[in-house]
Amino acid sequence: MNQMEALQRIQQLGVSSFESRDVSALLQVSPANASMLLGRLAKRGLVRRLTRGRWGIGEPTAALLAEQVAAPSPTYVSLQSALFRHGVIEQVPGMTYAATLGRARKIRTPRGTVSVHRIPPELFGGFELADDGAKVATAEKALFDLIYLSPTRSRLFVKLPETEFPRSFKWAEANRWAKLIRGKSRRAFVEKKLAEMRQASERQRADA
């Protein structure tokens, strides 16, 4: 089987990202031969190396890249990245932030760095499909995720970015997610932060 025949077989999987072991099983070759084949395809620009052992086809947006590198764990773009896309913050994030059901980690790729953060299953959701097909949190869920993760050990989200909420922002929706938090202390913390941010937003609008 030549490289182009192998590529056609890979494309027939109908997925945008895959692992070397997937190709090994698909083509019935050893893992070493699968990695060698994918390396040659990558040199020709026909596939891309995302991370060690994971590859992709096509040129994904930053949002789709987050899902690809975190696969097979369900993932959606959130936190600062989603807030920026919705115009709630003006500062461009230095990497793509995402929420996942998998483990939290920072993944460096040739296309940029993806920072994924674990959300418990009962809090996973609140995203919409963007034009590029990527899952992106609503503004309300992105803010909730940011506040929910701020007390974690990484302390990555302790300092919240400067925000400006549109009149269409649904505070009740953010609070609905807060009520789903199982831990009483974390739920109280998130609800308090949401109330403070809502009051600050209303004062800012009144002073404008």
Domain count: 2
Distance between the termini: 67 Å
Strand content: 15-25%
SSE arrangement, N to C: HEHHEEHEHEEEEEHHH
Work out the number of β strands: 9
Which structural category fits the helices and strands? Answer: alpha+beta
Q: Major β-sheet, in short?
A: 4 strands, mixed
How many DSSP helices? Answer: 8
Mean pLDDT: 88
What percentage of residues falls in helices of 4 or more residues?
40-55%
Question: Which descriptor suits the 3D outline?
Answer: elongated
Strand neighbour order, sheet with most strands:
4-5-7-6
Tell me the Rg in angstroms: 20 Å
**Which ranges are low-confidence, i.e. pLDDT below 50, for 5 or more consecutive residues?**
none
Can you tag this structure with a few keywords?
Arc Repressor Mutant, subunit A, 9 strands, 208 residues, 3-stranded antiparallel β-sheet, alpha+beta
Précis, in short:
With about 210 residues, the chain is α+β, with helices and mostly antiparallel strands. The protein is built from 8 helices and 9 strands. The protein has 2 domains: about 5-55, Orthogonal Bundle (Arc Repressor Mutant, subunit A); about 60-205, no CATH class.
What is the strand and helix layout of this fold?
Elements: H1 3-11, E1 17-19, H2 20-27, H3 31-43, E2 48-51, E3 54-56, H4 62-70, E4 75-77, H5 79-85, E5 96-100, E6 105-109, E7 112-118, E8 127-129, E9 135-137, H6 139-149, H7 171-178, H8 184-207
Parallel strand pairs: 5-7
Antiparallel strand pairs: 1-3, 2-3, 4-5, 6-7, 8-9
